[in-house]
Amino acid sequence: MQDEKVVAFQDIKPAAYRHYLVISVDHIPTVRDLQRRAEDYSLVRHMLNVGQELLQQDAPQSNQYRWKHVKYLSLGPLGGFIEAEKLLEKIKPFSSTSS
Fold first, then answer.
1. Is 31 exposed, middle or buried (0-12, 13-18, 19+ CB in 10 A)?
2. Residue 78 lies inside a defined structural domain of this protein
3. pLDDT of amino acid 85
4. Can you tell me the mean pLDDT for 16-37?
5. Residue 44 burial (10 A CB sphere; 0-12, 13-18, 19+)
6. Which one of 49, 55, 67, 88 is at 20 to 30 Å from 9 when CA atoms are compared?
7. Minimal CA–CA distance to 83: which of 72, 75, 73?
8. 96 falls within a domain
9. Using one digit for the tens of pLDDT, what is the confidence trace for 39-85?
10. In a domain, 1, yes or no
11. Number of domains in the chain
């Protein structure tokens, strides 16, 4: 699957029974380059939605599966992972309205 924002496909060496890679079309060197901006938040949310849609198409009964991790390459040569929802919390834009 491909759209204007992402390319998505099954991993050739899956770490799980259902393992998809969803990659931004625009190069993002590391997760640390994502900032609290609407466009970064929107991109990550879109990536998660695409992964969930692929999983639903491939395995509609897959309620037990979760879209969970985002690769975090800035932790050295082996990288690491951050939970997707935690990443979204970190880059959620600040509200422009004040009380």
1. buried
2. yes
3. 82
4. 87
5. buried
6. 88
7. 72
8. no
9. 999 999 999 899 888 888 887 776 555 555 565 545 555 556 777 88
10. no
11. 1
- Answering whether pTM is above 0.90, one says no
Distance between CA 95 and CA 47 in Å, rounded?
Answer: 22
Instruction: State which H helix or E strand residue 70 sits in.
Output: strand 69-71
In sequence order, the 6+-apart residues with CB closer than 8 A to the CB of 54 are 1, 8, 20, 22
pLDDT value for 63: 58
Residues 6+ apart with CB under 8 A from 56: 62
The more confident residue out of 16 and 21 is 21
Asked whether 74 and 34 are in contact (CB, 8 A), the reply is: no
Structural domain including 35 reads: 6-91
Tokens 């009964």 map to which residue?
61
Name the 3-class secondary structure at 23: strand
Other Cβ atoms within 10 Å of 59 Cβ, number: 13
